[in-house]
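Escalated from tier 1: magnesium ion holo job.
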Amino acid sequence: MGTASSKEAPTSPPVSTRELKKPWRSVNWREKEAILKELGDLRPSSNVLRILLYGPVGAGKSCFINSVQRALLGRNAMVALENTERFGKSFTRTITTHKLKKRGGGHYPFVLTDIMGLEMDGGILTEDIMKVLEGRILDGYKFDSQAPITWRNSKYNKNPSICDKVHCLVSIIPADSISRMDHTVIDKMKAVRQKAGQMRIPQVIVLTKVDKTCEMVNKDLRKLFHSSKIKEKAELGKHELDIPWNNIYPVKNYHAEIIQDTDIDALILMTLRDIVNFASDHVEDVY
Ligand SMILES: Nc1nc2c(ncn2[C@@H]2O[C@H](COP(=O)(O)OP(=O)(O)O)[C@@H](O)[C@H]2O)c(=O)[nH]1
Ligand SMILES: [Mg+2]
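Tier 2 regenerated the structure:
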């Protein structure tokens, strides 16, 4: 592992790859409507399932939130502000929870919580992420990279309910720069993972920017699980963060596309369905 990923490292051109005859994961690219129905029918044991997204700045957290909302609505939508590639420091400094709209009106019973990025220096403090896991930091709190929240703060939640706690922890990692991720960032992530493990919170890695990582995938997203390059990046993520192989989800986020793409939607929805189910199982098992 080399230097910074927090300051968006200069990106190398997409690398060509070996095409695996057998995909390393089998997926059904035509499942979109079935997943939408499944998510629409979901009645979790708590009013809300809270999914926390965290990772290095520029990893694609905000884009993932927007992509999820687009896939659910079947149209362009923007719920979270995205960073520009050249913008080094974390754009999001406050904790923000995004509700997700349903096509016919109303909202889904799951939310995505976005926090400040994990820069090497000046990023969110690990103590604060742990407090978020416990449901102790209310929406709108502005993170201070010099000092953790204290119980005196008006955004400190002294009595978190089930709905305030995190039910699935999602590490967002960019596939194209995973091998250049800084050790400080990885160590922060490991500390958070350990805490989440103690709380029995399920954990997932979402590997973004697969289109930037592999030219074959850039041309045809359905080649994703045939790409030796993406498999190699997923293996690296598994190794670095010690997450089970089947909890690693490569995705392409909407970033420049204005019109909807069935394959992007399918991949985002397949990922979302598993995350939501893990969160739902956790609530049933623990509370
Ligand atoms: N090519 C490509 N670019 C992406 C993808 N996801 C995010 N980006 C770009 O990466 C940059 C940072 O994304 P953003 O969501 O703001 O990162 P955040 O800091 O983690 O919230 C933006 O310029 C996005 O357009 C992806 O899957 N593919
Ligand atoms: Mg962001």
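The first strand starts at residue 49 and ends at 54.
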